[in-house]
Amino acid sequence: MRKIYVIGIGGSGAKCVEASIFLHCLGVYGEAQLGVFLVDADSSNGNSQRTQINLNNSIECYENFKQVRESDFMSAGFKNYGVWNPLADVVHETNLQDIFNKPALNVNSPALRKLFDALYSPQEQQAKLDVGFRGRPPIGSIIMSRTNLDDLKNIQGALWQKLLTDIETDKGNGEEVIIHLFGSVFGGTGASGIPTLATLLSNYFQDKGLRSGFHLNASVLLPYFGFEKPQDAEQTIFAETKFFALNTQAALQYLTENANGVFDTVYLVGNEAKENYRSFTGGAQQQNNAHFVELYAAMAIKNGLEQPIGQTQVAYISRTNKDGLDWEDLPESQYMKSKLAKGVRFAYAWLFNFSLELDSAKQIGAKKFATGAPWFLRFFDLKNPDWESHARAKEVLDKWTRGFLIWAQQISGSFGQGEQLFRLKSLGNIQANQQNNYREDLSELINDGLIQSAAERRNDCLDNFKNQLTDQKMQLSQPTGLVGLAHNIFYII
Amino acid sequence: MIPLSMSSRDLDTWWSNIFSPTTNIIFVAGLVTTLIWFIKATTSKYTKSSDVLGARLLWWGIFWGYLLLSFIAFAGLNYFANNSNKPIKGIFEASLWSAPFLLLDVILLFWLPTASSTPKTLRYIPPFSMSLRKLIGD
Fold first, then answer.
1. Which among A263, A286, A278 is positioned nearest to A197, based on CA atoms?
2. Could you tell me if A169 and A288 lie in one domain?
3. Same domain, A57 and A193
4. pLDDT above 90: residue A273
5. Last residue of one domain, picked from the residues A255, A288, A318
6. Which of A104, A437, A460, B78 is the most buried (most CB within 10 A)?
7. Mind telling me how many Å the CA of A388 is from chain B's nearest CA?
8. pLDDT given at position A346
9. Region A68-78: what's the mean pLDDT?
């Protein structure tokens, strides 16, 4: 089995990982295990937390729905390595001055102290780092460069030990391994973390004689959003849009000069029109909507598998129309469209119809319910529907589909005023609007520009799919119960 | 054999003037009502089970309408035959005997096809259709 290790660095990196988790749930990466490792100095960062929630939901969903091997939905597993905080070893020191013990530098190495003062302003030296690197690559670089993988690997039970040991084991077992890093180069954590961690990983495996056997790729995010000065506190050191171009230029220069031989393929993804996010300096409130740039970054994993190892190359991609995003703009557009459209249609059908119907079945009784829902008979025993054993799987799938639809809705609204790829605006607040909000029509969900006839539109509805579920001989090996129902919906929709 | 006290001539008259027209009316009405139900089942879309269950009212409405129409046709023909210049002797007895069979006719002409063959989402709405379809291997 193929092993994919994704490392999300910083808030944007975590959001790319979120996209890759959803793509993996839909079977985009084929039969592979996705190992997820997040790097963030801000342990309470909203983006990382949301990714963790969606990862945990996906893992739970996989555990409940993995039995049906012929289905692409939840066809391959996950491994969660957790969130590594590069400041974890200096939790009691909250700023650069404390971390590098400036008073001691004054005494022991005045020259080094002068260099420290030259590189970092007094505000930067005193800025509290419990909210991350504040969009400043120099702060991130000095922290990240302290990292030593050999030391980290020797910490029993530590995240790095698990990750590195698993990669080495996989290589030893002859598995196909790909390590894919995600992060922005215009902020703090990603810009400092991508080159540093990639170099450390490359050197580590080079020393072990394992480097030539796996892909080490990265999706590097160029500026695609902006924001004003944070209003959540009186901050003096914070991420500022005006520095993004400078940060990007410096990071790309560094990558050009130092990344040769480190990466196999680097994907540069950005967007000219910047999405404007509300600004918070770290913390749980720093939770920005998903963006289609992150979807592109996550899709790069699949492309990276097909690229040669050991030949550093850079890939760009562009849209055909700068005013919008079409399915044709995606790499492997037909394949991606089939997977994403199926995922959205399935999540919509489940959350806004089948899930509500099962609640109703439980309420009015299986036999009475089945009189109006013939599909129910194909999957459930009327005398003993066994609600208890299905309850957990239903709860888990409800959470997953809700999280996925929220993500897809954010992706569709991430460019200008219109909707891209999907039409999900009409769902409003998905978190709040599910109850008794039955939906039926699927014809308007996918924004593909295809003109359907009135008959085609009329037939693209859940009632038709329910009748297909009832009539057709099930093609999947385990067609009973809630698990079978979900997989069969995913299969035919 | 039904033990009727009617003469064979009256029976022939009753058969041709009342029973035969009544069964013809019931047959045509059965075709029409069944067709209405099948058109409804084929063309309607339902979002949820509770909406589908609402169609039970329609099925029973059609059924009772059909039954009422059959009864009116039968009773009307009996009435006019009895009040004509040449009333048929033993007409009440014959009608009483034939009524259950006409009722069975109504049931077979509407219930059986709808219960065994209603397409799509309404397939289990006719009473006992779930058991019947299971019995015939659907």
1. A263
2. yes
3. yes
4. no
5. A318
6. B78
7. 21
8. 97
9. 85
Highest mean pLDDT range out of A19-23, A325-329, B103-107? Answer: A19-23
Interface confidence, given as ipTM, is 0.87
Q: What is the pLDDT of residue A457?
A: 83
**B132 part of contact set with chain A, CB < 8 Å:** no
Domain that holds residue A380: 335-492
Residues A359 and A484 in one domain: yes
Determine, yes or no, domain membership for A309: yes
**Which residues of A touch chain B, with CB atoms under 8 Å apart?**
353, 356-357, 360-361, 364, 368-374, 376-377, 438-440, 458, 461-464, 466-467, 470
A389 and A300 in one domain?
no
- Per CB-CB distance under 8 Å, the chain A contacts of B134 are none
Judgement on whether residues A439 and A484 belong to the same structural domain of the protein: yes
Nearest CB neighbour to A374, from listed B48, B50, B123? B123
Give domain status of residue A330, yes or no.
Answer: no
Q: Is residue A206 part of a domain?
A: yes
Residues in chain B with CB shorter than 8 Å from the CB of A373 are: 49, 52, 121
Q: How many domains does chain A have?
A: 3
Look at residue A322 in the predicted model and tell me its pLDDT. 78
- Could you report the per-residue pLDDT of A143-176, keeping only the tens digit for each? 887 777 777 777 766 888 999 999 999 988 989 9
Tell me the pTM: 0.88
**Taking CB atoms and an 8 Å cutoff, what residues of chain A touch B55?**
372
Give chain A positions within 8 Å (CB) of B124.
370-372, 374
Domain for residue A211, yes or no? yes
